[in-house]
Amino acid sequence: MEISQVATIAGKEFWDRIRNRWVLAVALVFTVFALVIAYFGAAQQGAVGFRSIEVTIASLVSLVIYLIPLIALLLGFDAIVGERERGSLDLLLSMPITRFELILGKYLGLAGALAFSTVAGFGLVAIVLAAQLDLNALFHYFGFMASSVLLGMAFLSLAVMLSVFAADRTRASGLAIALWFFFVLVFDLLLLGALVVTGGQYGGDLFPWLLLLNPADVFRILNIFSLEDVRTLYGLATVLPPSLAEPWLLALVMLGWIAAPLGIASWRFGK
Amino acid sequence: MESTIQAAAEPLAGGAPDAPGEAVIRVRGAAKHYGAVRAVDGVDLAVQRGELFGLIGHNGAGKSTLFKMLLGLIPSSAGEITIDGAPVSGGGFRAVRRRIGYLPENVVLYDNLTGLETLHFFAKLKNAPAADCGAVLERVGLAHAAARRVREYSKGMRQRLGFAQALLGRPQILFLDEPTTGLDPEAIREFYVILRGLRAEGVTAVITSHILAEIQERVDRLAIMASGKVQALGTVQALREEMDLPLWFDLRVAEADFTAVRDALGSLPVVAIEAHDGRVAVQVRREAKMAVFAALATLGGRVLDLHVREPSLEDVFFGFSD
């Protein structure tokens, strides 16, 4: 593998998103939402203003779990199929570059743009809140930012995978929306439904582990488990086995969610 | 260049049909099947270093598929293709790709980049010096538009930019798929001037075109493809002779002398004779060419002007592809 080829493709993808202000727009969305949640999250209870990092992160997790997968899927769904449909893929592949380098470069460039937006958007909020946060709170907030980046990369990996399999952009966009529905809205309902139907009698111990099959759930556990108040609030301590609370394990699972779809995409694209 | 004609029906003795010289592109029994469809069906070719080689055929004849196979973009179902000695499907082909320039049919570039940025991007991929980009833009006549975004380019300018990216890295082999699409006549002439210059430097070029009149005097050899097969291969002149198509004699004579012309040619194998506006067009079999001259000489000064027309590449093309 030639790193320079990967860097060239990644650089183009990244600067394309900087240039067309995609990064700026997404960063602004994150900043605005995060600020609104931090200052007005408790408005329903009649209180306005920053309350605690735990509550802010819990609210942000609920937001990010909807927003980042959608943004990542929309960012990557046409990475390959778009080039193919426009007719520029043949020209790219006629260059001294392998298909693996091309797909990796595409992924890294898009991931860089998404990570930059996420860090810039939420990082700006961290700067605004810095005076009201102690070191521990900052640590939790940076953990939330890092896991948000991982969540985005996992869904971006899924998007790139479907961009290889899809026959055209229209189908790819439909599949992207379907994936979002499945992982963000349907998956947990299916698990809950199965639990209710079986009365928790069959494979009850297995269900918490099944959450690992959804990167959105991994992200949720990763953030909620790191905050004592919120964990109690969610009642997760009684549902999830302690072994699932290991951040390194959850981070590893998230890395798996990044590597596996990308690996499948690379295998399919190379055929 | 000495000609070699090889009709597909004939056995190809000794493998691929070669012209003298060092074959830089070698295709042996290449085939590409999509289910029952044989897009490319047992093609044998050899293109020599420094040769300007044409590939013509109807839409769906298999040209573009063969092009993609030559570039290693799609795998062959059967056969072997080597460029500069390296199999296109092998790991060693990356090094060869650095010496290849490719202009796809209907080239699509990135609208958000400027002309110069486009070339910088492809130069990086080809490991070509960025400093060459300006010179290449100058060469294709786009220096004035270097800082303009591609979305503002006309079709002809995009085509020239596509050609410019193909020229990056001083390629030794060019694959040009319909390279003059969208170009005006002056740009087409400039394109072929550049191509001739490259040929003089030893660059090999494979070119496809639907405009047969445009390439008939410009390529060294060409292959006519139909139904996925190479139906004929050779120089334009050799293919004309192979087809044994009749010649046209265009005569200018006084109207009163039409009958005399007809009488003088009466005993010869005339295929057709047409007269209008003081001109007589006589189509005769090739072997009767000198006899026609002799017969016309008997008319003395009554023939005011004479022009002999070879069958066009279009005539040859339809002869082989039909």
TrEMBL record, chain A:
GO terms for molecular function: ABC-type transporter activity. GO terms for cellular component: plasma membrane. It comes from the Bacteria. The chain crosses the membrane at residues 22-43, 55-77, 107-133, 139-165, 177-202, 248-267. Keywords: Membrane, Transmembrane, Transmembrane helix. The keyword Transmembrane helix applies. It holds the Pfam family ABC2_membrane_2. This is ABC transporter permease.
